[in-house]
Design the sequence.
């Protein structure tokens, strides 16, 4: 039975995500398998992204997102309002299903999918704003899809190969590598980094004024309670602890290192923190934020 779901565009903050993936495990139950950013002729209505579910369960895709990021940092975001993908099943994200013989698809409508043709990143994000999968690609060949070797998260298996003719829609990739499928399926852990100036109100990001005593903490789900704390980092090599006094700290992030069961360091990154050293400057920024929210809601 065909699935026809309407999607809309949305911009959001990523509160925390895993930076260094383990190299011999299938990290994601749903992953980006194949995509076509540059169809023959006009791109409108003909672009598509194929997802695949390697798990034994149906996965709810409600409020999942797909981002494409250009080399200049511009982001295009699509939200899946409603949808699901069955076990060992493909699903196609597309603008218009009438031009393809899709058996299982989510239709985003005209203009709902607009990927960059070169120097870009494509990211799959779940309803908790966790990056489930991401791939980098260079110049797209007109009419030929990018195919992934398999779901194991490694440099070799994440390599994207161009289909020699057109695409492998709804079937195994022509460029599939069996060694990239031989791994243990694990669940990507959720680690949320939060900030506070009073240890009462905690937020995933923070805007404040003046020399501020900044508190920070992390929260894990039950699946990763056995992670061991390693250290907090500010910038690359500066080890810090909570709380710290910060002045004029704008648009920077704090990193968290935990140690997993294999004694490997896993690094997470917070969202941005903005602390302004000038009260007027902070007031102006705050007013702009309020105005933007008013305009968006209006």
Sequence:
């Amino acid at each position: 039975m065909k699935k026809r779901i309407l999607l809309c565009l949305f911009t959001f903050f990523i509160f925390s995500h895993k930076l260094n993936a383990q190299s011999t495990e299938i990290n994601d139950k749903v992953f980006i398998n194949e995509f076509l950013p540059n169809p023959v002729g006009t791109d409108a209505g003909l672009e598509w992204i194929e997802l695949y579910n390697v798990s034994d369960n149906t996965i709810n895709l409600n409020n999942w997102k797909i981002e494409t990021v250009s080399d200049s940092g511009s982001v295009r975001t699509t939200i899946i309002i409603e949808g699901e993908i069955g076990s060992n099943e493909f699903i196609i994200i597309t603008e218009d299903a009438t031009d393809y013989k899709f058996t299982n698809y989510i239709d985003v409508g005209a203009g709902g999918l607009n990927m960059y043709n070169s120097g870009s990143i494509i990211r799959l994000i779940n309803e908790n704003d966790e990056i489930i999968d991401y791939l980098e690609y260079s110049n797209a060949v007109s009419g030929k899809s990018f195919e992934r070797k398999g779901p194991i998260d490694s440099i070799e298996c994440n390599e994207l190969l161009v289909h020699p003719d057109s695409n492998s829609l709804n079937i195994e990739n022509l460029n599939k590598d069996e060694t990239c499928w031989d791994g243990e399926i694990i669940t990507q852990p959720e680690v949320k980094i939060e900030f506070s100036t009073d240890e009462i109100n905690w937020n995933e990001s923070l805007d404040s004024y003046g020399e501020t005593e900044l508190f920070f903490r992390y929260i894990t789900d039950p699946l990763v309670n056995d992670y061991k704390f390693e250290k907090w980092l500010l910038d690359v090599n500066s080890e810090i602890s909570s709380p710290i006094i910060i002045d004029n700290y704008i648009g920077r992030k704090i990193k968290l290192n935990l140690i997993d069961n294999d004694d490997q360091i896993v690094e997470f990154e917070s969202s941005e923190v903005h602390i302004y050293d000038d009260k007027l400057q902070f007031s102006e920024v705050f007013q702009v934020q309020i105005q933007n929210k008013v305009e968006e809601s209006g």
User: Anything to note?
Assistant: The longest strand covers residues 212-220. The two ends are 38 Å apart (CA to CA). Residues 279-297 form the longest helix (19 residues). Helices lie at 279-297.
